[in-house]
Here is the input.
Amino acid sequence: MSNCEINNRKVAIVGCGFVGSASAFALMQSGLFSEMVLIDADQRKAEGEAMDISHGEAYARPMNIYAGNYDDIKDAAIIIITAGANQKPGETRLDLVQKNVNIFKSIVPEIAKRKYKGILLVVANPVDILTYTAFKLSGLPEERVIGSGTVLDTARFRENLGNHLGVDSRSVHAFIIGEHGDSEIAVWSTANVAGVPINKFCEVRGHFAHQEAMERIAHEVKMSAYEIIERKKATYYGIAMAVKRICECIVRDEKSVLPVSNMMHGAFDITDITMSMPAIVGRNGIELQMPITLDDKETKALQDSASLLKKTAASAGIE
Here is the structure.
């Protein structure tokens, strides 16, 4: 098919489950786009979601929301892939890998053969592996294949720290990196509140049991999704907000630093795997992976996380 120019006011979502529909709702309210296409294996489900969301347009901003097919999305500025099997109670994100890799093998080639020029945003889990899969299957430049990564985990981390310290979470600067999953790493060594090192600020607030608090908070962040899934069977509002935030950075060319899934090229002696690392995100996708500093313990944990992801990718036949 011939090349198609990108419409910067158009977004597409592939997969209209909990995450896809919540993301569509968040994006409709954001005002970032004037056109949204929804695709799902169940066409009637996509049609129903489009109808339901569009009925609120009178109270938002004008937007053309409709169910479509792959020909309808080839000019979208961003294609968001949320399609995949859901994580069940007791199931890890990595347990999903083979099921969702197979689903991606039916989706990504459909996008690739239309010579897509926009940005592919992968949200389905396990997101780091599926971002790697999408990169391999799409033939797109790696900077235009982004995973939602640990953007949500980082928000949970900052919110938890903000509550602990009695400060606006937006003033907390700290990242979760590595796998969006059980081997994720809370980067304590450079965490700070408005430039004040985290331990010093803790003491200002009357907290002195640093190791105990760090272990508790990191564990709570890691277990957040499992606890939500155990209570309500799925997580979708938090990730929908993360999707909106990533789209903002792209559409508005903000060049914000977000811990998205992106390709490793030797940092911390890790190569040829996609994992969540802070990067500058703008109109063209990933502009630069940030040269962050880690202590020895964090470096080792990141390398272990990368090894786990590589092993998982290889077992799923993605190399």
